[in-house]
Amino acid sequence: MKSPCCCLLSFLLYLFLFSWTWANPEGTFTIRLLQTTTFQNTSFVHTEGLGLLEDIELGSLDKHTWSIHFYQPWVCPALPQSDWDTIDNLLKIYLQQFSHLINEGAMQRDVPYPFVAQCMAGCELYPNRTSRTFAYVGYNGQDFLSFDTENASWTLSQDTNLSRYVWSVLQNYTTLSELVEVLFNDTCVDDMEVLLNYGRAALERQELPVATVFARIPSLDQLLLVCHVTGFYPRPISVAWLRDGHEVPPGPVLNTSTILPNADLTYQLRSILAVAPHDGHSYVCRVRHRSLGNRSLLIPWGNSEVMLITGLMTGLLAAMAIAAVSVLWVCRQRKHQQMAESESRNSILSKQA
């Protein structure tokens, strides 16, 4: 029976066989396998898993059967069913032994339950076709162990009884570096030509960014210019503010958010520039993205917008004033008319008397 470490590595590199060939040969691409295992007690263990190629979700782990659910239609056809069966078996063996290893260490080192173990492992491919593997283990949200790919050894991220125990177990598997060398230098390269076209369309997908510029006025002496960019894919993007045609450097007046995901598998961000109202400068939000090619998306903002809003407000207030004066005049006219009619009736009644 294989060690848990070797089983995990085999599973990672089987996935790597078809993931790295989907990538754009001109860039660097990464596949990551994420595992979260919750140890409620010695007899109840809950495991979740997710596979990612860049930001594309390849599949997840069924927490009840430990089987793989594919999210992309091009994942399963990339390998013969016999290979997927092998991966499925290796995955189950690894998860069983992983749970046993951690539980055994927790009981021997009096680690309190419940606790959570997290693993992230995968492979990275560079444009020159060289590659590296990585593996990180976390405990209750903190770094625990990491894998040193150059020396093919595990490194302690925190020095505890449990981490030293797990480190000593993993460190004894000396076949790790040999397995990495064979699979990366031979198997992956040999299968690259066959698997190159799988998933290419998903990785090369491009969505144009949509940008809008508007202003906020938090105080009378400050104006916040907001450039909201959304709907773009892939994730890398460049957003900058130009003042009179020159890029505004990073500083306290410039605040750009992190790139956030949208529900439709695109991304969004905001860049906010603080300026003084009516400072006499022109401002443009510039967006650069792969989908735009060599072009840039330029969205200008000018003080004319504020002047327009101010003009509209002034016009509205003037109209309201005119309406108020008109209503007052009509009321007075009606009052004078009523008084005249009353005096006329009183005069008629006095003559009749």
**Rg result:** 34 Å
> Which architecture of the largest domain does the CATH hierarchy give at level 2?
2-Layer Sandwich
User: What name does CATH use for the topology of the largest domain?
Assistant: Murine Class I Major Histocompatibility Complex, H2-DB, Chain A, domain 1
Whole-number total of structural domains: 2
Can you offer a commentary on this structure?
The chain is of the alpha+beta class and 353 residues long. It folds into two domains: 4-203, Murine Class I Major Histocompatibility Complex, H2-DB, Chain A, domain 1 (2-Layer Sandwich), CATH 3.30.500.10; 210-306, Immunoglobulin-like (Sandwich). It has six helices and 17 strands. The strands form three sheets. An eight-stranded antiparallel beta sheet has the order 4-3-2-1-5-6-7-8, with helices on one face. Strands 9, 10, 13, 14 and 15 form a five-stranded antiparallel beta sheet that branches. The longest helix is centred in the C-terminal third of the chain and has 50 residues, at 303-352. The radius of gyration is 34 Å and the shape is elongated. It starts with a helix and ends with a helix. The relative contact order is 0.10.
